[in-house]
Specification:
Layout lengths: L2 E5 L37 E5 L31 H17 L4 H15 L7 H13 L2 H4 L7 E9 L2 E4 L1 H11 L3 E15 L4 E13 L6 E12 L5 E8 L3 H6 L11
Parallel strand pairs: 3-8
Antiparallel strand pairs: 1-2, 3-4, 5-6, 6-7, 7-8
InterPro entries: DUF2358, NTF2-like_dom_sf
Protein name: Putative NTF2-like domain-containing protein
Amino acid sequence: MRATLKITKPCESLPRIQTRPDRLSNRITDSPVVEPAKTMAGVCCSLRLQIPLLSLPTTNHGIRCCAKAPDNNPKREETPQILKLAVTGVTEFLRLLSPFNTTTTTRLDKATDKRRDEFPDVGIDDVLMILEADYKNAYFVTGIFTSAIYAEDCIFEDPTIRFQGTELYARNLKLLVPFFDSPSIGLEKIKKGIDSEANFVLATWKLRTYLKLPWRPLISIDGSTVYDLDDKFKIVRHAESWNVSAIEAVGQIFRPSGRSDD
């Protein structure tokens, strides 16, 4: 945009115009141009300033202090779809071979419903404390966790699989427990945070376990889990991240550890 300013004043008394580019947006690329008209003494001068249209950023005056929910896998590699399908297929196959029959499953469901009533009102500090206790009980490798702090339709995901439902998660854990040999899960750190939209808890951990397969593979993963909470402080998303890719993690299953079968 060009603004033209005409000043009717003797040229000899025309004040010197100085610009302060440092006070303008750094988006200004053209310097102001002063073009005096051809005049004789006592005749008016024409002063024209060329000032590009400033594109100043809009400012949001509302300020909110918060800690953004961290991406616990900033270097995430896309897991091949065929690997995700394979993991899902193996999980379903294990479910068919599971010793948990319908009666056992029904008892598990009833126990889950009962535990949901144990914590009617909780806050983020309560959730953190309960999660810390679950880690001490090694819930990853025992299948025993406090389902009452999870929403029924909670989303569970890791680099190899994603599904919905707390009861399904409990069953999947139970499927894996019989295959663990000398398992351990160590909690490294757990903390709470406040996102711009929701609360969350972040836990980092180390998982070590042998599998009860003839070649005794060792599963060794350092990981973290983000627990996203809703406005009632129920966990609505349980998202794991690992220090190895999904392909590397699955590859550990087929690598002999050299450990003898005791």
